[in-house]
Amino acid sequence: MKNLPDLFRLLELTRTQPQYGYALSDVKSYELSNLAEHHYLVTMIAWQLARHIKNQGGVIDIQKVLEYALIHDLGELFGGDISRIYVELNKRARVKAKAFEEENHKFIGKFFGEDEKYFRKLAKEMLDPKTDEAWIFKMADYMECGHFLRYSGHYKNDDDDILGKALPKMISKIRNKHTKKVIKELTDYWLKEISKDKSSIDVLKRAGKK
Q1: Domain count of the chain?
Q2: Is 189 contained in some domain?
């Protein structure tokens, strides 16, 4: 219990830690997202993906999906954000960045008190996804990146290619057949929608016509 005030203070730092990996996507410093915003949005997207799967009769542990989403980039409080584009160009950098993130998780895990082992277990499962819950969270992470690039006006044709390859690859790892079917249908639709250059006003107008 006594660890919580210090943990909460550290969590506040997520407000000011920028996602500087977006710099290689031509995102200017004043446009950068931060960890707090990213964590909230990934968690919201992950929650809706998991709820949709559950509502359609799929098998998913919603709480576990949310836990992955809530903690997934906490290690980046101490640095380590890396561009998806750079990762594709330099595989060795990805390995080193992952090792750095694991080390950061060990350090920040100390602030979770009695939940230190649980936090580190979640972090390990998240970095090396094997469960359906981990893959669904991972998809939410990628989707949020796509939406941020759309929002900031930096979405490119290459992003269609990256998302179009990455998300189906994640879906192929999902074990439950019905869950896989449900998330594939949703993802196919999402990929078509994210490729359209629509404004928030366009979205609101479409809702108003229903």
Answers
A1: 1
A2: yes
Of 22-36, 80-94, 106-120, where does mean pLDDT reach its minimum? Answer: 80-94
Domain carrying residue 106: 4-201
**Residues 70, 73, 75: CA angle, nearest 5 degrees:** 120
- Give which of 176, 144, 140, 175 is closest to 46, Cα–Cα: 140
**How far does the chain reach from its first CA to its final CA, in angstroms?**
49
pTM: 0.91
Smallest Cα–Cα separation from 43: which of 18, 72, 19, 8?
A: 72
**What contacts 114, CB < 8 A, 6 or more positions away?**
none
The pLDDT of residue 88:
79
Calculate the alpha carbon distances from 194 to 64, 95, 105 in Å.
26, 29, 32
In a domain, 58, yes or no: yes
Here the CATH number for the domain that contains residue 183 is 1.10.3210.10
Q: 206 in a domain, yes or no?
A: no
Query: Does some domain include residue 45?
Result: yes
User: What's the angle, vertex CA 183, arms to CA 179 and CA 186, rounded to 5?
Assistant: 150
Q: Tens digits of per-residue pLDDT, 98-144?
A: 888 889 999 999 999 999 999 999 999 998 999 999 999 999 999 99
